[in-house]
Write a structure and sequence with these properties.
about 270 residues; alpha/beta; Rossmann fold; 6-stranded mixed β-sheet; 4-stranded antiparallel β-sheet; 9 helices; about 35% helix
């Protein structure tokens, strides 16, 4: 069996005495698409920040392709092939959609020449169906289109071995969500890129991920196929605060929200 691409070993992170991540250990295989779910405030975004270098762990290890990421800043980790998106799309509003992708190339002196870079950027825009808006300023995009552009810019990184996607499907039109799913699948199949996808969208994760992991109060509490995880008593109790059969995360409902739409916990610490 191949060595895992990503190893998390005993990760801990606290903010002001509040534990956001508590002893998380897991592995991601090369070419895997993994879903990560959990009630709001369970530490999912903090975990992505620990992998991407935006936050440093208090203790524990992140190992990528056999090499530790300890002490490395986000740009050094990105140079190792780790890219990510954020819950709120971060685009250069007064640059065109195409220019937003070319920024990735301009920021990296190791990349190929301009002609090849432009060709690759245009191919990515076709992949996410934004090629018709290539010369529009990014400020004119809808929220969902901006999420698509953020995903395309993530996929533009070279090398690219691991994509960390933080709530990419939240609040977007079903048609745009479908484009994202297709782009993730195609990138995974064509290039073997590993994805760790934080989402509350159960039907979408069912299509994407063969394996789903669950966090609650900073801890890694369950792991496996979505149907099995949804029946796990620990997961049911994490979402509803009480054990009981048939009350796991429901299809179409955002986990972490009760039936009346209210969340019982704050958002993940950033």
């Amino acid at each position: 069996m191949d060595d895992p691409l990503l190893i998390l070993d005993g990760l801990h992170k606290s903010f002001g005495g509040v534990a956001a991540v508590r002893g998380v250990s897991t592995t991601l295989a090369r070419g895997e698409i993994r879903g990560l779910i959990g009630p709001n405030g369970s530490g999912k975004t903090t975990l992505l920040n620990l992998v991407g270098g935006q936050t440093r762990p208090d203790r524990g290890w992140v190992v990528l392709a056999g090499r530790s990421l300890e002490g490395q800043p986000p740009d050094a980790i990105a140079a190792r092939g780790v890219a990510r998106t954020f819950q709120l799309p971060r685009v250069f509003r007064h640059m065109t959609v195409l220019e937003n992708l070319l920024v990735v190339v301009c920021a990296d002196h190791r990349r190929a020449g301009w002609v090849e870079a432009r060709r690759d950027a245009e191919a990515l825009l076709r992949l996410v169906h934004l090629d018709g808006l290539a010369h529009a300023e990014a400020r004119t995009l809808s929220g969902g289109q901006a999420m698509l552009l953020q995903l395309a810019r993530c996929l533009a990184q070279r090398p690219l071995v691991l994509c960390l996607l933080d709530e990419p499907f939240a609040g977007v039109h079903p048609g745009i969500k479908e484009r994202m799913v297709q782009a993730i699948h195609e990138t995974n199949r064509a290039h073997g890129v590993t994805f760790l996808v934080v989402s509350h969208e159960m039907p979408t994760l069912r299509r994407l991920a063969g394996r789903v992991s669950v966090m609650h109060n900073g801890a890694w509490i369950a792991d496996g196929p979505l149907d099995a995880v949804a029946r796990d008593p620990r997961v049911i109790e994490a979402y509803l605060g009480r054990p009981g059969p048939g009350h796991g995360p429901e299809e179409g409902r955002a986990p972490g929200r009760a039936a009346d739409g209210h969340s019982g916990q704050p958002r993940d610490p950033a």
